[in-house]
Amino acid sequence: MNGYRGFFSAIAGVFMFYLACALQDQPLMNYWAAWIIAVFIQWQLSRKEIHSQYGGRPVIAHILVKDEGTAKLIVEPVICLAAGYGLLGWSDVLGKLVMSAAGSLLFLENYYKHSRQQREREVIDARIEAEALNQGMRERLGDYR
Asked: Rounded to an integer, what distance in angstroms lies between the CA atom of residue 101 and that of residue 119?
């Protein structure tokens, strides 16, 4: 999924633009314009360095809790739900879009957690295989330490 970040952002941008135009929702169009600017600025800032694929520290959620896992898995989705609920009076579509981000955050955090666990298993497997190969070579060639 990490290799497709720009692709998924493009799809999200096209979807929001289509939704704003189809529903003629000015607050959503304003949000889309601000989102485009934020994505462009972030893209410019991140072009200069190698990305670790770390999703970032949840700054606002960290005010409420110190544990990053709790902040990302519980507090950030609750903030999205609350913000979306608050926006419902201004723009029904924008409020629901922001509220739906809570589900996306839950999905992504679980996906990243699973990916980290998979990479950890692969590293452990590679270590076991390297040790077995090393042991086999010692048995064939003798231990020359």
From this structure: 26
